[in-house]
Design goal:
This protein has 7 helices and 17 strands. It is α+β, with helices and mostly antiparallel strands. The protein folds into 2 domains: 59 residues; 194 residues, Fumarylacetoacetase-like, C-terminal domain (Fumarylacetoacetate hydrolase, domain 2, Alpha-Beta Complex). A hairpin with a 2-residue loop joins β2 and β3. The radius of gyration is 19 Å and the shape is globular. It starts with a strand and ends in an 8-residue tail after the last helix.
Length: 272
């Protein structure tokens, strides 16, 4: 049975709590990082908490992923998003991985700050997965053992400055400005049986009440198990790290036809 956890500030102190029906039951102890919280607590222990509760409305939200954790991302991981980004999904033969700066991590309700030089700011809703244990050697991750490597899920909004990312060909710079990574508000901890339902999750993003993005996690091109297997062969992962799995179609960005892209590649940066 999944369990929603909130990272929050109350009376000037950062805390963690289990949330249900708009009420928070604080978790005893001080855990400065997501990794420390996950190492000390499990769904089983958290489901048996007792004691007084707080109203969710009375606390200040914090990101359930703390700034010490790695922020790993997959790009162009939904077929229709690849097409709207000017890519041929049938010709792509690799899993696109990039990172965002840890300092862009922010609470879910934060005011996103658009730098003055950025004109084309874009949104990207994504399913984020939180690493459950340290991975310091190649691992074979499968759908059957995914629960051994993933603690839970969060919602991520991968904001992008397209006029930095595209002409400069800089994913990191275009996506890493401060506040460009709001996460949460909840960390949904998953029991082993819950992983069967990951593919059934639906992502939706609205702008001023209008649905812009909507898709099923089942339409990921490279799934979590496949991606974690690949990443484990490249780098270390640690408890509490975040893997953001890509965004569906519907971004504000609209890329011209391949022919116009080739012409645009010849233009000066400002014209691009």
């Amino acid at each position: 049975m999944s369990l929603n956890v909130l990272h929050f500030k109350h009376d000037g102190r950062a805390q963690w709590g289990v949330i249900h029906g708009g009420r928070i039951r604080p978790v005893p102890g001080a855990f400065e990082t997501t990794g420390a919280f996950l190492e000390a607590n499990s769904i089983d222990t958290l489901s048996h908490l007792s004691g007084p509760t707080l109203k969710e409305a009375d606390v200040e939200l914090l990101s359930p992923v703390t700034e010490n954790q790695q922020f790993l991302c997959q790009g162009a991981n939904y077929r229709q998003h690849m097409i709207e980004s000017g890519m041929d999904p049938d010709a792509k033969t690799f899993n696109m991985i990039f990172t965002k700066a840890q300092s862009c991590i922010a609470p879910a309700n934060t005011d996103v700050v658009r730098p003055g030089r950025v004109r084309f700011l874009d949104y990207e809703i994504e399913l984020g997965l939180i690493i459950k244990r340290d991975v310091v050697a190649p691992e074979q991750v499968t759908d059957a053992n995914l629960h051994e490597f993933v603690a839970g899920a969060v919602i991520v909004n991968d904001y992008s400055a397209r006029d930095v990312q595209i002409p400069q060909m800089q994913f990191y710079k275009g996506k890493s400005f401060r506040t460009f990574g709001p996460i949460g508000p909840y960390l949904c901890l998953l029991a082993p049986a819950d992983f069967r339902g990951l593919r059934d999750l639906q992502l939706a993003l609205t702008v001023n009440g209008k649905v812009r993005q909507k898709d099923s996690v089942a339409n990921l091109v490279y799934g979590p198990a496949e991606t974690l297997t690949e990443l484990s062969g490249v780098q270390d992962l640690h408890v509490g790290d975040l893997l953001s799995t890509g965004t569906p179609s519907g971004c504000a960005l609209s890329v011209p036809s391949p022919g116009r892209q080739r012409i645009a590649a010849l233009l000066p940066e400002a014209a691009k």
